[in-house]
Design goal:
heterodimer; A: TIM Barrel; 2 domains; 23 helices; 9 strands; 51% helix; B: alpha/beta; Rossmann fold; 5 strands; 46% helix
């Protein structure tokens, strides 16, 4: 043993936990991060061999457990889609050009909180928030700058926006008109998933029922006018970030998607006309195998329910497509460089689980928005997985593993039990109104936190392997405070220059439509074309539908 | 302002979410932990203005206000709450908080009068100890007097 190895060994011994006495060691539980107990060993006895072939299928074949494409990453890699947005449209446009030059696969717009909550940059509630956690957008004028030099028919764009989704999508459509790009050429995704906002992220404006109607309007609009666009990204990411288990994330997300599907069918749409454009969005947390099992179980459940309950026939309606983002809540402010390692492992689980696109987090996200350098390392992490590890050579490399198959079955069963319970409680909207999801998540989150606090669950650099740190070890991005002032000036300039009579009548049209049962997308488009602001359009709808307030529950 | 009711020995804390950010996992964990540690906790819910937070703190006769901000608006919202406290002539309520706050800002805020800013990964025991020692101190001082 060399001197260096010896030193390393000594260091390891120093850091290793003290040997436990026999009874203590016996009491140690081996559980996933979601508290699923794991056996010492998995064998052929843990899987029902007679049903295995049927449960797995071939890749690209029902029930799609092994992936939705026959060749998976051999024929087409996943889209490396890095979420970005900060400050004003000009700054974000620069970041997009930078990311496109680094061969990112698609754009992903992060909006600031005033935009997400439907307030203009000069609203009293926007004070201090403008441009802080995403880009500030007030009117079409900002969108023109945001996509300057980017042809909308040459890029796929994802927009993380929920309550005001129709408005931001209308801006994208209006910009396409200006660029001379036909709507049927537009490719991209809106998050547009309000149910998970009530469940987890809490960025809502209106009460649940009119909110779901807005979404159904958008789905219907896309079927007719923008057939390549994904109108909803049914999101479990935020549910997981709020502290749910893997099975809860899976079940609650799928339940939300089934609720939208039901509403669209009630609207008179054929399930096969819109279901092929539904996509999902999951978290990639740190428990490696549990995550892989979750993605595999997701595809299997989705296939079964779309087929049996909704009578979908098109192959595309039966395949669950998903985007993945690594777990922001797993990152630590302590020894932040360690976050690169966490993210790489999480990203790998998403790839082994068959994701269609991936966002890998930057190491500095517990401190601020990503710096250029941190954002680049995050993208490079995916490129290393894709180009160097060899995991893309074969489809579903872990399929048939005793452990993976047993865990996939287990998560599937747990998620199915939740889906049944939601149904028994009267469906998703009832469960939201009654606080069921919030309670279940809160319970899981407290259990996890308790494990961390007691030291039962180790977090490197937080409750073990701690080192004394002085000051920030990595540089962070600071958003200038001038951004807010400039943005307000810009908005006021637009207001002064536009035809305000046209705005007034467009908003009145919208309100009339909202009171009736027309499709709100068309009057929203008219308002946006006239440079009505996000806040003005949301206010018009607030007047009709009111605002949702959640009673504080701990 | 009215004298504090010193007969109640429990530390009272108002936990608040100012601004537009809806990330309430952290503040709920803190609320449960402080309550389990024997304190009285009032949680305001989401999207409160500095004014409503300070008014609630006065009305509830609390020893401290704990604020959670994860949106990056901390350099506006913490000073706005401090200014509100000053405006209302309150000098016996300790302001503390947590969130996604870079070190540089944390130092500035602590200099400006925020008693302590916690960042992700702060152990809960540390937060409980802080509240017990720093926030509860006012109450103890009053009892001695």
């Amino acid at each position: 043993m060399s001197e260096k190895q010896l030193q390393e060994k000594k260091l390891q011994e120093k850091q290793a936990p003290k040997p436990k006495s026999a009874p203590e060691a016996k009491a140690k539980r081996f559980c996933t991060i979601s508290d699923v107990e794991i056996n010492r060993l998995y064998t052929a006895d843990d899987i029902d061999q007679s049903k295995l072939a049927e449960k797995l299928g071939e890749p690209g074949e029902p029930p799609y457990t092994r992936g939705i494409h026959r060749d998976m990453y051999r024929s087409r890699g996943w889209t490396m889609r890095q979420f970005a947005g900060m400050g004003n449209a000009r700054q974000t446009n620069e970041r997009y050009h930078y990311l496109l030059a680094q061969k990112t696969g698609g754009l992903s717009v992060a909006f600031d909180l005033p935009t997400l909550m439907g307030y203009d940059s000069d609203h009293a509630n926007s004070l201090g928030e403008v441009g802080k956690c995403g880009v500030a957008i007030d009117t079409l004028a900002d969108f023109e700058v945001l996509f300057e030099g980017i042809a909308l028919d040459g890029v796929s764009t994802s927009m993380t926006i929920n309550s005001p989704a129709s408005i931001l999508f209308a801006m994208y459509l209006a910009l396409a008109e200006k660029q001379g790009v036909a709507w049927d050429k537009l490719r991209g995704t809106l998050q547009n998933d309000i149910l998970k906002e009530y469940i987890a992220q809490k960025e809502w404006i209106y009460p649940p029922r009119p909110s779901v109607r807005l979404i159904t309007d958008l789905v219907e609009f896309c079927v007719k006018e923008a057939p390549q666009w994904h109108p909803i990204s049914i999101s479990g990411y935020h549910i997981r970030e709020a502290g749910s288990t893997a099975a809860q994330e899976l079940a609650f997300t799928l339940a939300d998607g089934f609720c939208y599907t039901e509403e669209a069918i009630k609207r008179g749409l054929d399930v096969d006309s819109f279901a092929p454009r539904l996509s999902h969005f999951f978290n990639a947390h740190s428990d490696f195998f549990e995550e892989i099992a979750k993605y595999r179980a997701a595809r299997r459940i989705y296939y079964k329910i779309m087929k049996e309950r909704f009578g979908a026939k098109s192959e595309k309606s039966l395949k669950l497509k998903f985007h993945t983002q690594t777990a922001g809540c797993s990152l630590t402010a302590q020894q932040p460089e360690n976050n690169i390692v966490r993210t790489a492992i999480q990203g790998l689980s998403a790839v082994l689980g068959g994701t269609q696109s991936l966002h890998t987090n930057s190491m500095d996200e517990t401190l601020a928005l990503p710096s250029d350098k941190a954002a680049l390392i995050a993208l490079r992490t995916q490129q290393v997985i894709a180009e160097e590890t060899g995991v893309t050579n074969t489809v579903d490399p872990l399929g048939g593993s005793y452990f993976i198959e047993a865990l996939t079955d287990k998560i599937e069963a747990e998620a199915m039990a939740y889906l049944d319970e939601i149904e028994e409680r009267g469906g998703v909207i009832e469960c939201v109104e009654e606080g069921y999801f919030q309670r279940e998540i809160s319970r899981a989150s407290s259990r996890y936190q308790g494990e961390v606090e007691s030291g039962e669950r180790k977090i490197v650099g937080v409750n073990d392997y701690v080192i004394e740190e002085t000051g920030p070890s990595i540089p962070v991005l600071i958003i200038d405070r001038e951004v807010e002032e400039e943005q307000v000036k810009l908005l006021q300039k637009v207001r002064a220059e536009r035809d305000n009579e046209r705005i007034k009548s467009a908003l009145a049209e919208l309100q009339a439509c909202a009171r009736g049962d027309g499709n709100t997308m068309y009057p929203i488009l008219d308002a946006v074309r006239a440079y009505a602001s996000v806040g003005e359009i949301c206010d018009a709808l607030r007047e009709v539908w009111g605002e949702y307030t959640e009673p504080p529950v701990i | 302002m009215a004298e504090k009711d010193t007969s109640n020995k429990k530390i009272r804390v108002l936990l608040a979410k100012p601004g537009l950010d809806g990330h309430d996992r952290g503040i709920k964990v803190i609320a449960t932990a402080l309550r389990d540690a024997g304190m009285e906790v009032i949680y305001t819910g989401l999207r409160q203005t500095p004014e409503t937070i300070v008014n609630a703190a006065i009305e509830e006769d609390v020893d401290g206000i704990g604020v959670s901000i994860l949106s990056g608006a901390h350099m506006t919202l913490f000073p706005a709450i401090l200014a509100q406290l000053k405006k209302q002539g309150v000098d016996d309520i300790v302001l503390f908080g947590g969130g996604i706050v870079p070190n540089e800002d944390k130092e500035k805020l602590e200099k400006a009068g925020v008693k302590k800013v916690f960042t992700p990964g702060a152990p809960i025991v540390e937060i409980i100890d802080f509240v017990r020692n720093e926030v509860g101190r006012n109450r103890a001082d009053e009892k001695i007097m």
